[in-house]
Amino acid sequence: MFSFSPAHRAAGKRSLGRFLVVSAIAFAFSGCSLFGDDDDDKELEPLELTDIEETLDVRRVWSEKVGKGSEFLRIGLSPAGDGNRIYAASIDGKVSAFDPENGDVIWRVETELALSAGPGVGNGLVIVGGFDGDLVAFRSEDGTEAWRVNIAAESLSRPLVEDNSVVVYTIDGQLRVFSALDGTEKWAMEQPVPALTQRGSSAPILVGSSIISGFDNGRLVAADLSDGIVEWEAVLTPPSGRSDLERLADVDGGLAVVGQDVYAAGFNGRLAALAAESGQVLWAREMSSPAGVAADWNNIYTVGNGGEVVALLRRNGDDVWRQESLLRREPTVPVPFSTAIVVGDFEGYVHFFSNFDGRPVARERVGKGMISGTPVVMGDKLFVQSESGVLSAFVVRLPEKEDEPENDDADEANEES
After folding, report:
1. Nearest Cα to Cα of residue 248 among 8, 18, 33
2. In the prediction, which pLDDT does 404 show?
3. Which of 215, 250, 322, 327 could pair with 307 in a Cys bridge, judged by C-beta atoms 3.0 to 4.6 Å apart?
């Protein structure tokens, strides 16, 4: 979905209202852009799911209500973990900590804010952002509020908490860094925001001491975390075309890093691997993705504009497999989990595909609400939050190894020797 945006947009209810209107217009645009002038409505509808042979034993171990649902608003709320607990937030202002083993609520606070991003977790803090520009930090131990500031801009991506800093990307094109101690602003940088952008923002990542973030103008920028000095800029997706719609070039999806290599994808443009220390493009190929990328040691995974799930070789970007069973179902960025690649869709289904060849191996459902946030892996569990306000935990039950038969002949030979 897209939204129109001046350089500094109002937040709160006006932002929500404008989004709902623009989303309806954009849905029509997106259908036309993907499928040309075909008048057959069926070609614009999400592909219906078909029965699959489930060869991966996926079990839901618990499911809990986080708060009120967000009803297809495509906000940046998704679970986050610190190794001991899993945290989640809802649009109606609830922030909760759960026991990852059984889903028991450890603490829950009500902010009385309309939340749009987070939580981000680190430095003993849980950070959430609101539609009206509120940025709130809670202590992860007991949920007590540590500080609260208003940054006068909405955020739709998870805050990054590292080295006593909180990094936030806001929809007015600013990358801002705040002190994790008291919320005071350390530095900010800004990129111009095009007149028409997608609804969504890329979450910043940390590589070494550098913050790397994608912007709505198609650029990737690396800056030093301590002082904001720009280390490099790379144009991932140069805007092209005459209309604002044709010139969409957002880098809104997830970024991935393996070692010193960064992987990113833009809308209407390229998917590329870049050197984290210099921004040099190692390889690139034409592939538009609104969802972004994820990676493991061998492959990177992405979703095309039409909803095809794609695996590519990490070393050069060549195709490994393509899976087209989720066309127009608005799948999330794929996440590696166990021997599978996991994506959520607009009807609350969680799809598991073989990371070897892309075959469907399992399917579960969190609820009827859309899954717009990226699923999260912590330990042996997968955590998925739907826009109906439900958080679920899944595990893969691996087949037990059979006991090896005793080799009596070998035992006798050993005794004789």
Report:
1. 33
2. 54
3. 327
Helix H or strand E encompassing 354: strand 349-354
Give the tokens for residue 349: 């289904």
Query: Each residue of 23-48: b (16+ CB within 10 Å) or e?
Result: beebeeebbeebeeeeeeeeebeeee
Angle at alpha carbon of residue 52, lines to 46 and 54, rounded to 5°: 135
Strand pairing of 58-65 and 309-313? Answer: unpaired
Q: Which residues of 319-354 are buried (b: 16+ CB within 10 A; e: fewer)?
A: ebbebebbbbbbbbbbbbbbebbbbbbbbbbbbbbb
Q: Spell out the residues 6+ positions from residue 292 whose beta carbon is closer than 8 angstroms to its own.
A: 202, 252, 253, 254, 255, 256, 264, 265, 302, 333
- Residue 262 sits at the vertex; the CA angle it makes with 84 and 193, to the nearest 5 degrees, is 100
Residue ranges and CATH numbers for the domains of the chain are: 2-398 (2.130.10.10)
62-89 residue pLDDT tens: 999 999 877 656 678 999 999 999 999 9
Of the candidates 317, 209, 225, which has an alpha carbon nearest to the alpha carbon of residue 265? 317
**Cα–Cα distance for residue pair 395/217, rounded to 1 Å:** 39
Note the pLDDT tens digit of each residue in 359-377: 999 999 998 889 988 999 9
Q: Distance between the two ends of the chain, CA-based, in angstroms?
A: 75
Chain centre distance of CA 167: 16
Cα–Cα distance for residue pair 188/237, rounded to 1 Å: 23
Flag whether pLDDT at 334 surpasses 60.
yes
| Contact between 197 and 214 (Cβ < 8 Å) | no
* 391 contacts: CB under 8 Å, gap ≥ 6: 63, 64, 65, 66, 79, 86, 88, 98, 103, 383, 384, 385
Long-range contacts of 144-147 (CB under 8 A, 24+ apart): 145/109, 147/182, 147/183
* Chain CA centroid to CA 47, Å: 22
∠ CA 103-372-14, nearest 5°, is 110
Backbone angles phi, psi at 156, to 5 degrees: -125, 15
- The token pair at 297 is 């040691």
226 three-class SS: coil
Cα dist from 27 to 32, 57, 197, whole Å: 9, 36, 13
Please tell me the total number of residues recorded for the chain in this structure. Answer: 417
CA geometry: angle 75, 240, 153, nearest 5 deg: 30
